[in-house]
Specification:
Layout lengths: L7 H6 L3 H17 L5 E5 L2 E6 L16 E8 L4 E5 L7 H10 L7 E2 L2 E4 L7 H9 L3 H10 L9
Antiparallel strand pairs: 1-2, 2-3, 3-4, 4-6, 5-6
Helix pairs in contact: 2-4
Length: about 150
């Protein structure tokens, strides 16, 4: 479900109560640990934490006019999702999966996201620990190093 909300607050207000409560709770935890430099915004119809152009002027390689997305929260048709773009770079995914497994919660992972139907299904601490442990500079460096040479900023 693509949203036309202009702010995270407007986005959350548009959701059914159960999803609003779950995504609000996750958002609050993310905002507590979000490393300096990232900004919260709406991007692609989701609450998104981005590396702003003031830090990484090249933007997202798929659409350079957009800030580089780092993580997102969304309510979709069948479930809610937490996108963690960092875990799809290098070996971060294996570490993430191991930490998630250690919580005893079932990991429902898709292409670029962790899906969940209710807040209690999600290992929120693994999500927030991953975000907290990823400074902007580290994310940008790994992002750029994983781009094809023709897509790397000059």
């Amino acid at each position: 479900m693509t949203s036309t909300a202009k702010t995270p607050e407007e986005y959350l207000a548009s959701l059914p109560d159960d999803r609003r409560e779950a995504l609000t709770a996750i958002r609050e935890e993310i905002l507590k640990v979000l490393p300096q430099g990232y900004e919260e915004t709406m991007q692609y119809g989701m609450i998104t934490y981005v590396v702003p152009h003031s830090i990484f002027p090249s933007g997202y390689h798929c659409k350079p006019t957009d800030a580089l997305p780092f993580a997102s929260l969304a309510s979709q048709k069948q479930y809610m999702v937490a996108y963690l773009h960092y875990i799809y770079i290098g070996s971060a995914q294996e570490d993430f999966k191991a930490r998630y497994a250690a919580t005893g919660k079932k990991l429902d992972m898709g292409a670029g996201c962790v899906r969940f139907k209710k807040l209690s299904d999600l290992a929120v601490e693994v999500i927030t620990d991953t975000i907290a442990a990823t400074p902007v500079e580290e994310f940008v460096k790994k992002y750029v190093s994983n781009l094809p040479p023709s897509k790397r900023p000059k």
